[in-house]
Amino acid sequence: MAGVRDQYEAFPYPARDPRDETKRLITGSPSFPAEMDHHLWAGQRDWSQELRVLVAGGGTGDGLVQLAQRMHGAHRPYRITYIDLSTASRKVAEARVAARKLPDVTFHTGSLLDVPLLGTFDYIDCCGVLHHLPDSDAGLRALGAALAPDGGLGFMVYAPYGRSGVYPLQAAFNRLYGHLPPKSMLKHAKATMKAVPASHPLNRNPVVGDHKQSDAGFYDLLLHSQDRAYTIGQWSEALGRTGWHLAGMAQPGLYDLAGLAEPPEGMDPIARMTTAEELRGFIKSHVGYARRDTGPTVDDIPLRDRIPHLANIASGALAKAVATRSLRNITVGPEKFPVALPPEAASLIAGIDGKTTLGQIIARESAGEDRALRLWTKIETALLPWGMMHYSRWLVD
Ligand SMILES: C[S@@+](CC[C@H](N)C(=O)[O-])C[C@H]1O[C@@H](n2cnc3c(N)ncnc32)[C@H](O)[C@@H]1O
């Protein structure tokens, strides 16, 4: 059976062409600076201080390129260390960083189990990697040992229900073709996939489509030899027993029972999240942040002192959509979640520029402070659950 390293040498993942760096920046969570700040540092990090980053299992470089580009573009000091088992993946990541002329990135080939030897880091990105380790707890402990005292982790791990149909096919293809070299295994499995009926859970799964995108995607999804998924409860336990705790999810709304069910009084937060995951059924990965120490959270910072920051949408565009009532839903995975934002919220939204405190934004409102604060509660309720707004000082000079 091809080992994990052989797989990623044969099929660097995700499949990327460095020439595309001139055309687009691939973005995604974790590892947006504002999102990191919101969940890990109560939105109060001093970004004039160098951010020492480890990208653990960096693959072909999506997380690395995104973070380096954003930090470099915003003139924020950083130093990024990339490590991955696969030299083929590293070559692609290096070429992407070179194409963008991004400074302050160092590349290593090796195992993340050895990262404590590489130094101490304020932030570790580990996206789509820990679930491929034979002992994920050992990985979490190694990352913890490389973290600075006030540091944090951005993670993505697979979740079981949204990956419905994946694991039976991985088992079957590994039993049938696992003795073959990776390229030959892929060829045979792709041929067999044509005979898998339309009624198979994978073929009916609306949220998983990597196997249709590229050979690397097919291999990563359906031929992996080392792959497990975690319910949010299992993941929280794994974090707990390795010295971490969950600091926040990129889209906390997914784990909220509101609109799904009324939990019995006193149900603990992780049981609520687990129940929401079970009821939704489509969550295919858990994306979020973890810390080792408990620090202040955004909720501990006075509302007026927080600096709101929109993710992936300009404030003018969002304000216009709200003013004209054209924003009715937010689409997450296969679902649409209704948004209740009155048109009067538009002027507050228009004031969000990532640099101005909420107190300053509210002071500009002619309609009065109490009304502005009531509207702001509605804006938070609409945007925070879906990771569309964060509190962060990262653009403040
Ligand atoms: C699914 S890819 C994810 C790549 C990247 N983080 C991303 O999100 O696009 C998993 C990567 O983890 C790497 N990997 C797996 N086990 C590792 C280990 N023990 N140490 C370092 N890298 C590892 C693989 O080589 C592969 O590049």
Tell me what you see in this structure.
- The protein is an alpha/beta fold.
- The protein has two domains: 4-161 and 227-299, 3-Layer(aba) Sandwich (Rossmann fold), CATH 3.40.50.150; 302-391, no CATH class.
- It contains 15 helices and eleven strands.
- The chain has a seven-stranded mixed sheet with strand order 3-2-1-4-5-7-6, with helices on both faces. It has a two-stranded antiparallel ribbon with strand order 8-11.
- Residues 4, 8, 13-14, 57-59, 62-63, 83-86, 89, 111-113, 127-129, 132-133, 220 line the site of S-adenosylmethionine.
- S-adenosylmethionine binds next to helix 1, helix 3 and strand 2.
Topology:
Layout: H1 4-10, H2 33-40, E1 51-56, H3 62-73, E2 78-84, H4 87-99, E3 105-109, E4 121-127, H5 136-145, E5 147-158, H6 166-177, H7 182-193, H8 210-213, H9 215-223, H10 232-241, E6 245-249, H11 269-280, E7 285-291, E8 308-310, H12 315-323, E9 329-332, E10 335-338, H13 346-350, H14 358-363, H15 369-383, E11 389-391
Parallel strand pairs: 1-2, 1-4, 2-3, 4-5
Antiparallel strand pairs: 5-7, 6-7, 8-11, 9-10
Bound molecules: S-adenosylmethionine.
S-adenosylmethionine binds next to helix 1, helix 3 and strand 2.
Keywords:
397 residues; alpha/beta; Rossmann fold; 2 domains; 7-stranded mixed sheet; two-stranded antiparallel ribbon; 11 strands; binds S-adenosylmethionine
Count of separate structural domains: 2
Strand content: 15-25%
Ligand catalogue:
S-adenosylmethionine
How helix-rich are the residues, as a percent range? 25-40%
Tell me the total number of β-strands: 11
Largest sheet, described in full?
A: 7 strands, mixed
- Distance N to C terminus: 53 Å
CATH fold name of the largest domain, please? Answer: Rossmann fold
Class from secondary-structure proportions = alpha/beta
Q: What is Rg?
A: 22 Å
Low-confidence stretches: none
Mean pLDDT: 96
CATH class of the largest domain: Alpha Beta
The CATH superfamily of the largest domain bears the name Vaccinia Virus protein VP39
Number of distinct helices? 15
- Overall shape: globular
> What's the arrangement of strands in the largest beta sheet?
3-2-1-4-5-7-6
Along the chain, the helix and strand elements come as: HHEHEHEEHEHHHHHEHEEHEEHHHE
Instruction: Please tell me the CATH architecture of the largest domain by its name.
Output: 3-Layer(aba) Sandwich
